[in-house]
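Quick review question:
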């Protein structure tokens, strides 16, 4: 499905509403808009990871994830069943699980929680992970709105859940396969 963006501004949102993919208009603060806006925010955090490490070993997988996130946003932008419209399939989640298994195989088991940080790449991946978790919370909240419950592709929830897992594993991998992980020390500063 080709995308044509001839004009950047339309003025149609000046009244505080935005258009969904099915042609309907909703307030810009609608939970659906918050959900796909947060997916876009996660995509931007991944863009920062690439910008920080342009030639690094994670570039191709991050670009793959960024493209997926546009698909997720497109899916969320079109409520309900829309025929040939883009929908996130279960195969996207299965692909993420393959990545998780591959990268996690190189990591030592954890005996504590990981604090976000270590390398800059790891820190950006953790930022993206937490934004994806927020998007997941928003989508699950959208799924509980009576008028929306049957208008959300549940595969989006599965995908976001697995994506946050993958970003956690990649964050550890970017910390020299976990060697530079910063581990939580419960009660360390109690005195």
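Suggested answer, residue by residue:
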């Amino acid at each position: 499905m080709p995308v044509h963006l001839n004009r950047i501004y339309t003025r149609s949102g000046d009244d505080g509403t935005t258009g969904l993919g099915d042609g309907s208009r909703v307030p810009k603060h609608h939970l659906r808009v918050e959900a796909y806006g947060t997916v876009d925010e996660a995509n931007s955090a991944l863009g920062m990871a690439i910008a920080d490490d342009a030639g690094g070993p994670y570039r191709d997988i991050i670009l793959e994830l960024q493209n997926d996130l546009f698909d997720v946003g497109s899916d969320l932008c079109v409520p309900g069943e829309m025929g040939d419209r883009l929908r996130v399939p279960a195969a996207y989640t299965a692909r993420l699980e393959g990545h998780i298994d591959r990268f996690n195989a190189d990591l030592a088991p954890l005996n504590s929680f990981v604090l976000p940080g270590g390398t800059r790449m790891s820190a950006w991946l953790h930022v993206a992970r937490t934004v994806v978790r927020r998007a997941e919370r928003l989508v699950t909240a959208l799924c509980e709105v009576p008028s929306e419950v049957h208008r959300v592709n549940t595969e989006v929830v599965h995908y976001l859940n697995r994506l946050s897992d993958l970003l956690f594993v990649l964050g550890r991998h970017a910390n020299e396969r976990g060697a530079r992980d910063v581990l939580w020390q419960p009660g360390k500063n109690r005195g």
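Why it works: The mean pLDDT is 83. The chain is about 55% helix and 5% strand.
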